Amino acid sequence: MCLSIPSQVVEIHQGEESVTVDTMGVKRKVSSHLMTEPLILGDYVLIHIGFVMNKIDKEDAQESLSLYKEIVAKIEQEEQS
Question: Which of 34, 38, 39, 35 is nearest to 11 (CA)?
């Protein structure tokens, strides 16, 4: 099973068909050449093996990110116990 964490577009690389995304504080450059619609700064996307697969709604992305943060906090809390 693959789990995709919403990532926010923070930089667009014109002419390269790539963007830089921020995934929970980690930035990386990924390919956007599979996208059929243009991306703009601030868009939330889902990535699979280094490729942007689709855009997602901002509210849905933020809700998912909030849940991921809760999960990480619980795991860290359990590890400290």
Answer: 39
